[in-house]
Amino acid sequence: MVSRFEHPAGSYKKIFETCEDLAEALPATVTGRIPPFLKGSLLRLGPGLFEIGDEPFYHLFDGQALMHKFDFKNGQVTYFRKFIRTDAYVRAITEKRVVITEFGTFAYPDPCKNIFSRFFSYFKGVEVTDNCLVNVYPIGEDYYAVTETNYITKVNVETLETLKKVDMCNYVNINGVTAHPHIEKDGTVYNIGNCMGKGASLAYNIVRTPPTQKDFLLCLSSFGMSENYFVFVETPVKINLLKFLSAWSIRGSNYMDCFESNESQGTLFHIAKKDPGEYIDVKFKGAAIGMFHHINTFEDQGFIVFDLCSWKGFEFVYNYLWLANLRANWDEVKKAAMMAPQPEVRRYVIPLDVHKEEQGKNLVSLPYTTATATMHSDGTVWLEPEVLFSGPRQAFEFPQINYQKFSGKNYTYAYGLGLNHFIPDRICKLNVKTKETWVWQEPDSYPSEPLFVQTPEGVDEDDGRIPANILVEHFHPSNNEGANWRF
């Protein structure tokens, strides 16, 4: 899966340039043939505004949320986009400055205010961003654009109009939830959030939203879910709560300044039963990794098998996603990425039947994996993974599977966006059983996250299509051309 192309001309820099709303949908340029069964709309979210007047945003995850909509009909594609009218966006546009602190950009007080009002503005508490640039998913009959704070934003998926800002704190005891929930076939949405526990500790909550009810019900970046269990990976990267609560009032910092990494902690793997909701009180632990996306989780013969897109070590990968680094010339992009953690696709296996007397023994007996789980004398079960893919500075990220048929089941194929030194320049397919890989890639083309769509008559797991919009060198989102597609 090693990249076949270099990018000396720097056409990838177009990915990180500001664009504008469209007044109407535009026809897309299509290469190949769109299968007739592919009908409906594909929604995508991402950063689209990287500066306000003379004030720049500094981190990739600070760009203001832009929703993209691709409509498929009669073998053709139209493209439309509109910024989500969040408080962060509207206030920034109105005041022509960064008003709400984002992930890596601090919002300074209004310079037009007098010294007393500026002083007191530091003591009003943390104003959390609602910049919902990560994902969009259904809750009941409605759709919400989300990030990983407590705010979600209801949108009209036909017109892309912003309808309503919702504070999850009004419904459940959480400070934030992941932007990557699991959705069951009946429409039930499961997500995981965090809240303050006893003694100012951090607790995790599973949030279940029934398909017929729009309120959020409490039942107990991404998590795993099999038929009967939840898997949550706790990496060494944490938010220092004291820094977080004091940052805006004392130091004038951003979210990035509040993250700390503890190499000695390693990685903790938490397991909980779905029904009835019950935490499995066994300490599963492994070496330090960074992790943002689960691929799939399933149960087999008394074991939970889960596959992750991981980054080796305890360092925070987001430290390498500053816009200044990503917009640099190609040699500088590569130099910075060489210092970053190494990406790997990993498989871990957790035994559900654990006995303390089995110290020093590999508890995993599945014949098709080299992943191990070993009981230590202190009762900790140490997990070693099987590496399913590893390429120097070549990441397999934003994974997708045949979700409808194989979510929570033993599966074979995963699809991902290939990052070449953090630049998305290919679409990848991985056989998780044989470790065979396939790559789509063209010069000066930068795809988005893939999505698997099975053919109506498809029998095999990978009998389908991977529609992916491609940003090519002659196309830029700020002009009036349509998107480019490959089939």
From TrEMBL:
Enzyme Commission identifier(s): 3.1.1.64, 5.3.3.22
Record-level GO cellular component terms: plasma membrane
Residues that, per the record, bind Fe cation: H180, H293
GO biological process, one term: retinal metabolic process
Main location: membrane
Localization (cell): Cell membrane
Keyword Membrane belongs to the record: yes
Cofactor comment: Binds 1 Fe(2+) ion per subunit.
Gene Ontology MF terms: all-trans-retinyl-ester hydrolase, 11-cis retinol forming activity; beta-carotene 15,15'-dioxygenase activity; metal ion binding; retinol isomerase activity
Membrane topology qualifier: Lipid-anchor
Highest taxon listed in the record's lineage: Eukaryota
Family label: Belongs to the carotenoid oxygenase family.
Protein name per UniProt: Retinoid isomerohydrolase
